[in-house]
Amino acid sequence: MLALKLHGPQTAAALGKRLTITGEAVRQQLVRLAEDGLVLSWSEAKGVGRPSQFWGLTALGHAEFPDTHAELTVQLLRTIRQTLGEAAIDRLIAARENETRENYSAAMSDKKSLRERVDELVRLRSQEGYMAAYEDPGDGTLLFVENHCPICAAATSCQGFCRAELSVFRAVLGPGVEVERAEHILAGARRCAYVVRMVDQAA
């Protein structure tokens, strides 16, 4: 399940290669997980030949990964909204954004290149449970990805959290850097992904 969470839908053979076990052994495990409603399979044609069977996590499977104090967080947000109004939620998000930006900026104070700053952002976000990583597509950009959202329930209840996080990323990665969200868990993607590029110079 972790491999599907980190790398997205795959065939049993591809999973077996990644996990260094046989594809048949993986398929047997996937069938058991499917019986529990944690994964599902579908056929997908790629080129000529028979369609390949892909496996991916269901919503129940994604829920196996921690969403930090999800129910309590949503209840607190609802109570704040009902008793203090939407402006109080905005102040709460702004305070969290400021604190996060200050902490990340301090951690990146000695990081000179964009790649070093992105690498540090990966470390910081992974510590917070986001299963972060970055990829280098080779086109002058970096793709910063978060394979899990530990505050997904809160973000679903109030998408200001997502806007604030994007603002933090743009601030801490430095001037002259563009950060654009390319994939979004709340929009149905399996992960959040951000294209990072220098405006005037290479990463």
Walkthrough of the structure:
The protein contains 9 helices and 7 strands. The chain has 203 residues and is of the alpha+beta class. The chain has 2 domains: 2-62, Orthogonal Bundle (Arc Repressor Mutant, subunit A); 70-198, Muramoyl-pentapeptide Carboxypeptidase, domain 2. Helix 2 crosses helix 3 (23-35), helix 5 (70-84) crosses helix 6 (86-107) and helix 6 (86-107) packs parallel to helix 9 (160-172). The longest helix is centred in the middle third of the chain and has 22 residues, at 86-107. It is globular, with a radius of gyration of 19 Å.
User: DSSP strand (E) fraction?
Assistant: 15-25%
What is the highest CATH level, the class of the largest domain?
Alpha Beta
What's the pLDDT, averaged over the residues? 84
Query: N-to-C SSE series?
Result: HEHHEEHHHHEEHHEE
Instruction: Provide the CATH architecture of the largest domain.
Output: 2-Layer Sandwich
Strand elements, count: 7
Give the distance, in angstroms, between the N- and C-terminal Cα atoms.
Answer: 33 Å
Class by SSE composition? alpha+beta
Name the helicity range.
Answer: 40-55%
**Low-confidence runs of at least 5 consecutive residues:** none
For the largest beta-sheet, the strand count, sense and barrel status come to: 4 strands, antiparallel
CATH fold name of the largest domain:
Muramoyl-pentapeptide Carboxypeptidase, domain 2
What's the shape? Answer: globular
